[in-house]
Every structure is written in C-alpha cells, then in structure tokens.
Amino acid sequence: MKEFVEFIAKHLVDKPDEVVVTGVEGERTTVYELRVGDGDLGNVIGKRGQTAKSIRTLLGAASAKTGKRAVLEILE
After folding, report:
1. Global pTM?
2. What is the dihedral of CA 45, 49, 54, 55, to 10 degrees?
3. Count of alpha carbons within 13 Å of 26, Cβ hemisphere only?
4. What residues are paired with 31 via a beta bridge?
5. Is 47 exposed, middle or buried (0-12, 13-18, 19+ CB in 10 A)?
6. b/e per residue, 8-42, with b = 16+ CB within 10 A?
7. DSSP 12-51
8. How far apart are CA 69 and CA 46, in angstroms?
9. Cβ contact 36:13 at 8 Å
10. How far apart (Å, rounded) are the C-alpha atoms in residues 69 and 63?
11. Sheet holding 20-25: strands in order across?
12. Three-class SS of residue 4?
C-alpha cells in the first residue's frame, strides 16, 4: 500500500525525490503519512481538495481487500 501511495504522489509533484511515505500499522487501521517537498503540497491536494480526496478514495478501496482501514495524512 505504501508503494501505491508513493507511486501516485511522485507523479503529481515537481520534486519526486522529496516524496516520503511512512506507515504506522495498528490492529485494524494503518496510518500513512505522505510528506512532499516545499511547494508541492498544492499539487497533491489539488483544487478544492479533489486530488487528495481521490487518493484517499483509491487507498480506501485498495485497503478494503486487506480488511484494514487506511488513513492518509498529507504533510509538507
């Protein structure tokens, strides 16, 4: 799942080398932190948050197969 989020984010930003995704696994939930470089936060969030919402939707659909809930935090 971590690689999935990283793949999407690297194709959205201007500085793909600065994209870092970390995951913290719990019993029923996994929290992913997506960190992007300076100035790239707008590219990941998109207009009115639509890009971030789409990424979260894809992550939720992919994680449904594992039986765990996935949460995405986007940080600069």
Report:
1. 0.84
2. 30
3. 9
4. 24, 71
5. exposed
6. bbeebbeeeebbebeeeeeeeebebebbbbeebbe
7. TSS-GGG-EEEEEE-SSEEEEEEE--TT-HHHHH-GGGHH
8. 24
9. yes
10. 6
11. 20-25, 29-35, 69-75
12. helix
Whole-number Å distance between alpha carbons of 26 and 33: 14
Count of alpha carbons within 13 angstroms of residue 37, beta-carbon side = 9
The pLDDT tens digits along the chain (76 residues) read: 899 999 999 999 999 999 999 999 999 999 999 999 989 999 999 999 999 999 999 999 989 888 889 999 998 8
CA quadruple 55, 30, 4, 58: dihedral, nearest 10: -30
